[in-house]
Structure formats: C-alpha cells, structure tokens
Structure to design on (725 residues):
C-alpha cells in the first residue's frame, strides 16, 4: 500500500531523512516514533508530496507520483499544525474541505454531520473555531481529513497539546479507522500512543530508522529486562535464602525490600513465591518503547 | 471552476469575519471619498479669500470708503484689528498681511501718491511673497475704485483743483509757459465740474475705475462635474491597495497555519489554489467598486462618463493589483514581515502614483517617478473613462501598462512561492 524507498532529504547542512525505507501493508497501522527533529514530519510531507525528495522514491497504492489527483483523493493527512480556518465555524470548515474533495449535496451533509458527531462537535457546529478549546480544535483538525473517507491516513502527531478527554476521543476515532481496514501512518513522540495504536513501529532518530518491528519484538530485542521491586512482611533473615531463586546477580537488598532485573518476570515471581516469603507490596516494571529508544540511542525520547 | 469559486468564497468569508478587515477594505475608502470629496467640493466653490488685517488709524471718510472697497472684494477676507494685534497675527501666520492706513490717508491725492511720506503700510510675512504681491495689486485696485468715487464728488474734486492751482502758481521750478498750460487745464476741468449736467457727467465718470473682464474658466472646461469624479479613482485605488495588502497577508497566514498545505495535499492544482486567492481578491475589489460606485451615484449624483471604458479600466487595474498581491505575499515568511514590506511598497506606490496627492500638485522633479507606480496608471485609466473623455485608443496605453505589471508580478510571485514551498 505504501512504500518508501531510500528517502533522502536535506535542509542545507541538516540531514532530515537519511535513506529511510519502509513498507506499510493495507490495513496496517504503522508508527514513526522519535523525538522532535527526528524526521517524522518530513517523512509525512514527503509521502503526501508536499516536499520534493533529494533521493529515493515513494509509492502510494502502486503509484509513484503523490501529486496525481487519484492518489490525493485516496489520502487523508492530519497535519501537526492546526490547519483549519479559525474565522469560520466547524461546519463551515468541514463543508469547505468537503467541497474541495468533490463532495456535495446529501453526501456532503451526511459526511459533515457524521464527522461532527465523531469529533463530539455537533453541539458547537455553528460556533466560530477561534472560540474552541485546544482539544476541540485538534479534533476538528483531524476530522477534516477523514471527511472524504480516504483508505490511507497520515497522522502527524495528532494529539500534541490536547487534554486527556480529547486524546481518548482521538484514540477511539483512530481505532475505529483501524477496524474499518484503513491503512494508517502515525507519528508521535509518545511511546504510550505508539504502543496502544501501532501494529509496527519504526524508531526514527536524526533522519534514520534505527529499527522497525512490532512493539513486542522491539521490546524483546532492545528493551532490556523487566525490573521487580518487592517489599516483604518481615525482615529477611538472610539474602541467601532467596538468592537461588533469582537469576540477577546484582540483586539489591534493603531491610525488607529487594530489587532485581529479570528477562522473565512471571517465572521469577513464581519462584520467589515458592521461597516462602510473604509479600507486603510488589511492583513489576516491564520494558517499554522508551527503554528501546534509550538503549538504541543512549537518550530518552523527550531529551 | 466550481472549486475555484468555493475557494474564493471561503476567502471572502474569512475576510468578512474580521471587523478590522471590513473597515480597512470597505470603510476606509468610503471615508477617504467623503473626506477628500468634501475638500474638493470646497475647492469647487472657489478659494476662500486671502485673510488680511486692516488697521484704520486715519478714520477719515476716504479711509472708510477704501476699506469698504476691500471688503467687497471676493478675493479678500478682512478683519479689523489694532496695529499691535495685526502685526502679531501676521507673525503667527494667522493672516497673510496687515494693511495699515496711517493718519492723513484720506487727505486727498497728495497724501495718496506722496512717496516720501507713505500713508499706507503693508506688513506681510516674508515667506508669503506671492500673496503679498497679489495683495498689492488688490490694494491698488481698491485705491483706484475709491478714487473713482471721489471723481464724481464734484465739490471734493473742485477743492482738489483749487489746491493744485495754488501749488502751480507757487511752483518756482516750473517755467511760466508750462504753468499757464496746466492752469488752463485746471480751469477747463473746474468749468466741466461746475457746468456739466448730471446725466452727461455720470455717463463720463461713473463706473469702475479698473474693470476687468472676467471669464469663468471652469465653465469652459469639460472636466469633472462633481468633486467626487476627481476623488473617485483615487478612492478606488485606495480600496485596491487595502485589498492587495489584506489578501497578501492572508496567503502568508494560510502558509504559516498550515491550511495552505492542507489545500495543496488535496486534489487541487497549485493553479487552483492561487487562482482562488486571485479570484477572491478580484471579487472583493468588485465589491468595493460596487459600494463606492453606487454610493457615489446615489448620494453625490456622480456622472459615470464612458461606462465600457470605465469597466475596461477597472478590469485592467484590478488584474494589476491581483498580480501585485501574489508578488507581495512572497516578500516574507510571516504575516508581520509581509504586512510591513507590503505596506511599505504599496504606500510608496500610492504616494508616487497620485493616490495621496494628485499628480498635478506634485513637484515637477518628482512626477517622472510616478511612471513606475501602477497607481498612476490605474488612476489615469479610470479618470480617462470617467471625466477625461479618453477614446479607446487613449485607454490602450494605461491598460497595457497595468496588464503588463499585473502579469509580471503574478508570474514572479508564483515562481517565488513555489521555490519557497520546496
């Protein structure tokens, strides 16, 4: 469905994309995870034809030119910036963008009503967008791209700066789109979003893809071990009592607490339980995409 | 075409949603028309007279008659002041000059023409020499008119003749033959004053001493009938300048907030998007024209002139400014930079092109610069159609200049915009 082949893009001395390649299958949700300046937005802009490539090629639905009208009609892009007319109402925005995609009459009316419903803006449909909250504007910004029901969606950090309620609404909408079989590319620097929404994730940094796989595989490959932190009812008489049950030799003891790393947290807990200790509290910290990024780059996602 | 229209309608709606835009694009030109129309209307009634102060220190009958002659002159506005107040007002520039009638002003011909002891003083601002010279002419005219009144006062004239006779008889520097000749003339003149009947005397001496034939040039001139015909092209050009700046800024705004990219991602060509902007600017200019044109016709009864040529002039002028709009929007990447650069360019164009001050009032050395301003050509094309009675062939040159500027600016703007986008 989408094929990016050795994408290269420079802005003067800055390398924005350095041989970026990936393929996204139909119905798949593909995440581009990386910090600010990693090249996520550039990738989206290249895919939709807003930017000219210095090298490489893009293929959307078998066609190599994103400026073709049939390609653009199959594409819905949610830009990171609020690309809506704040002087108009939500309904006027939707009607205008709908008409640009050739919608009219009853079809346009139904789509506009449906989109307003999805975005939770039906009650405020006539209100001027400049009076909306940040979350409402984000929802409208997103829904304007879904109006023509494109099979291919490119979402560039659609949840930047929104309240939790709007964020959940946006997630629900994207999950609905997934269920409808749409192909989605989703960029974010929030690993929780990538973990929740994406089937596969590419870790992007300084214009290069460091690795690309399902979230689980990435964690297994690069996330490192999980960490268990346990507090017991009574002071341990001797660490040696439980040491045989734990593979990590760097186990930390402190009065009634222990902390250790393990690649198989469930098995470790079961063995610890068999040692006869009584737990007061237990905390299992599994590896996530943040750890994957840290291990791949030596930096945190939000550094 | 439908999409182009939707784009244009959206832009016009966005424009109309801002009260500030409405004022600057529609309200300001109307106010401009009213303001300058009122000024020119005042000018149409003729200049208000030169304001001068008169100080009467003579208080004679002749001085009063002289002052009333000055007061009856439309070219003068008289205020009566004391000597100190009058000179103070001249110093402050509140009056053009002060005319002081010294004691003895009304004592007769000798007093009036005695160059050793002048009885009439003029105090004027040295920076207003032209007005001072003009005033001297008016004072001389009033003086001759006052004397004319005295000529028909037979008693006063006969007293004057007696005075002159005494002087001639006592003149040591005049030989006897010459003195006899003048005395005979005085006797004959005195006989005329004494014996001529009223009717024949009045026929000979009554009437204005200096009577100029006046020709009202404006009635001969087939120029503007109402002052709004003069201001109308200027006002339209102001409206177009406002519109150009507003839409240039709106393009940058769309580029900075991402709606321009959203449109580019959609199934629209670049030409569609820019064409939509151009059409919106064009339509807004048409709205401005409609408001001003029908307003001027309904309220000020402004004659239209040659309507087809007027439409041609408008069409070319609007296309020129649509082109300029496209060029100006590429002069910066933010609303602030385009706003500042755009206004700087447009103000200079307006200033040199005659939108602020009619070209006729511009210093001659500055006028050649106006050829580089599309405002000048726009005003010329519109004036040509409204009141200069241009023929079609005379309209061709301003219209071609406007179209050339418009097409060049639009093309340059599109090229620069595409380059900036990539």
């Amino acid at each position: 469905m989408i094929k990016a082949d050795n994408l290269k893009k420079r802005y003067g001395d800055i390398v924005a994309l350095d041989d970026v390649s990936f393929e996204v299958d139909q119905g798949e949700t593909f995440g581009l995870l990386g910090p600010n300046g990693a090249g996520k937005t550039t990738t989206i802009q290249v895919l939709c034809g807003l930017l000219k490539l210095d090298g490489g090629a893009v293929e959307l639905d078998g066609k190599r030119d994103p400026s073709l009208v049939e390609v653009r009609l199959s594409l819905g892009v949610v830009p990171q910036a609020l690309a809506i007319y704040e002087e108009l109402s939500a309904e006027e925005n939707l009607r205008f963008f709908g008409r640009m995609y050739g919608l009219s009459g009853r079809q346009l009316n139904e789509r506009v009503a449906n989109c307003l419903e999805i975005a939770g803006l039906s009650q405020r449909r006539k209100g001027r967008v400049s009076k909306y909250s940040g979350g409402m504007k984000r929802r409208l910004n997103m829904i304007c791209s879904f109006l023509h029901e494109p099979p291919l969606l490119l979402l560039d950090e659609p949840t930047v700066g929104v309240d939790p309620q709007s964020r959940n609404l946006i997630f629900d909408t994207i999950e609905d789109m997934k269920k409808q079989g749409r192909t989605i590319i989703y960029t974010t620097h929030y690993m929780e979003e990538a973990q929740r929404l994406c089937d596969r994730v590419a870790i992007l940094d300084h214009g290069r893809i460091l690795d690309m796989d399902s979230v689980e595989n990435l964690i297994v490959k690069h996330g490192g071990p999980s960490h268990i932190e346990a507090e017991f009812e009574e002071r341990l008489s001797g660490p040696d009592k439980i040491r045989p049950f734990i593979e990590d030799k760097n186990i930390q003891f402190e009065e009634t607490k222990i902390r250790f790393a393990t690649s198989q947290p469930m098995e470790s807990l079961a063995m610890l339980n068999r040692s006869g200790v009584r737990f007061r509290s237990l905390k299992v910290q599994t590896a996530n995409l943040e750890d994957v990024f840290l291990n791949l780059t030596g930096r945190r996602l939000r550094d | 075409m439908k999409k182009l229209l939707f784009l244009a309608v959206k832009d016009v709606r966005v424009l109309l949603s801002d009260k500030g835009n409405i004022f600057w694009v529609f309200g300001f030109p109307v106010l401009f028309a009213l303001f300058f129309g009122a000024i020119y209307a005042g000018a149409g009634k003729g200049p208000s007279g030169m304001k001068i102060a008169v100080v009467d220190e003579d208080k004679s009958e002749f001085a009063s008659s002289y002052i009333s002659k000055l007061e009856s002159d439309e070219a003068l506005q008289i205020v009566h002041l004391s000597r100190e107040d009058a000179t103070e007002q001249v110093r402050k520039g509140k009056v053009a000059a002060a005319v002081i009638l010294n004691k003895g002003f009304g004592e007769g011909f000798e007093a009036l023409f005695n160059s050793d002891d002048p009885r009439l003083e003029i105090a004027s601002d040295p920076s207003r020499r032209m007005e001072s010279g003009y005033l001297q002419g008016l004072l001389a005219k009033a003086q001759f008119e006052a004397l004319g009144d005295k000529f028909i006062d037979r008693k006063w004239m006969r007293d004057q003749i007696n005075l002159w006779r005494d002087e001639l008889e006592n003149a040591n520097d005049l030989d006897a033959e010459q003195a006899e000749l003048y005395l005979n003339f005085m006797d004959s003149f005195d006989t005329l004053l004494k014996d001529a009947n009223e009717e024949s005397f009045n026929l000979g001496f009554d009437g204005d001493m200096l009577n100029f034939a006046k020709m009202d040039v404006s009635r001969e001139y087939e120029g503007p009938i109402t002052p709004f015909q003069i201001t109308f092209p200027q006002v339209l050009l102001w409206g177009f300048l406002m519109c150009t700046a507003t839409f240039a800024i709106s393009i940058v705004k769309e580029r900075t907030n991402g709606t321009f990219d959203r449109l580019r991602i959609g199934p629209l060509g670049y030409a569609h998007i820019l064409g939509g902007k151009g059409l919106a600017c064009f339509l807004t200019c048409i709205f401005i024209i409609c408001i001003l044109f029908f307003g001027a016709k309904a309220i000020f009864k402004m004659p239209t002139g040659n309507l087809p040529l007027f439409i041609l002039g408008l069409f070319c002028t609007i296309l020129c400014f649509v082109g300029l709009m496209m060029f100006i929007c590429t002069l910066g990447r933010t609303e602030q930079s385009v706003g500042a650069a755009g206004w700087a360019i447009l103000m200079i164009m307006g200033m040199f092109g005659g939108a602020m001050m009619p070209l006729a009032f511009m210093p001659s050395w500055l006028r050649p610069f106006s050829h580089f301003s599309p405002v000048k050509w726009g005003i010329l094309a519109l004036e040509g159609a409204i009141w200069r009675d241009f023929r079609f062939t005379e309209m061709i040159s301003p219209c071609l200049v406007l179209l050339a500027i418009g097409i060049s600016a639009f093309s340059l703007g599109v090229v620069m915009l595409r380059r900036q986008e990539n």
